[in-house]
Write a structure and sequence with these properties.
Blueprint: H1 4-20, E1 35-36, H2 37-46, H3 57-66, E2 72-74, E3 80-83, E4 104-109, H4 113-118, E5 120-122, E6 129-131, H5 135-143, E7 148-153, H6 155-160, E8 166-167, E9 173-175, E10 177-179, E11 183-185
Antiparallel strand pairs: 1-3, 2-3, 4-7, 5-10, 6-9, 7-11, 8-9
InterPro entries: Ptrans_KptA/Tpt1, RNA_2'-PTrans_C, RNA_2'-PTrans_KptA, RNA_2'-PTrans_N
Pfam families: PTS_2-RNA (PF01885)
Function: Removes the 2'-phosphate from RNA via an intermediate in which the phosphate is ADP-ribosylated by NAD followed by a presumed transesterification to release the RNA and generate ADP-ribose 1''-2''-cyclic phosphate (APPR>P). May function as an ADP-ribosylase.
């Protein structure tokens, strides 16, 4: 199979092309973010720089199955693949609106906190704000951007006020933005 370093490199590469820059390898995503698996493999191998083994369907399946954040999903017949959420390219993931739990969490860096508390939590370059019921996951995400702070989102109140929530295939909650009145600093 592949080494852990190769697994990580291929997974990061797949995230990059399936979420942000498919054009760097000439990959086409459909309107729902799906890419042809065979095309992904062919074009990834033609552009490989971070790993020394050719990517195969077995490697792609291994990455999809073992990714701890379940970032990728296959369609029903396994011929297409997409990122579950986190896109900066415009795609319609076709998620249905869901009733969120009472409370969700979002991790960010303290350097962004003042702007959020003055206005709102926004999606920035992504298509949605990402939230979770899992505090530790959100703190890990926040650490990538600086000193972490955890925001508590009063999701049920937002939903009652008419805001839409979506649940991705990997159990990340998504919404367009969170007005400051629906959040508090949890820690």
């Amino acid at each position: 199979m592949i080494t852990e370093k190769q697994n990580k490199g291929i997974s990061k590469f797949m995230s990059y092309v399936l979420r942000h820059r498919p054009e760097v390898i000439g990959l086409q995503l459909d309107e729902n973010g799906w890419a042809d698996v065979a095309e992904l493999i062919t074009k990834a191998n033609a552009n490989a720089t971070e790993w020394s083994t050719p990517i195969t369907i077995d490697i792609v399946k291994h990455i999809v199955d073992t990714n701890d954040k379940k970032r990728f999903a296959f369609n029903e017949d396994g011929t297409k693949i997409r990122a579950s959420q986190g896109h900066s390219v415009e795609v319609d993931l076709a998620y249905e609106s869901q009733t969120p739990p009472e409370v969700l969490y979002h991790g960010t860096a303290t350097k962004f906190l003042d702007a959020i508390l003055i206005g709102r939590l926004t999606k920035q370059s992504r298509q949605h704000v990402h939230m979770s019921e899992n505090i530790e996951t959100m703190l890990e995400v926040a650490k990538r951007h600086g000193k972490p702070v955890l925001l508590k989102i009063h999701a049920a109140e937002m939903a009652a006020a008419g805001y839409q929530f979506y649940l991705s295939a990997n159990n990340v909650w998504l919404t367009d933005s969170v007005p400051a009145g629906f959040l508090t600093v949890a820690r």
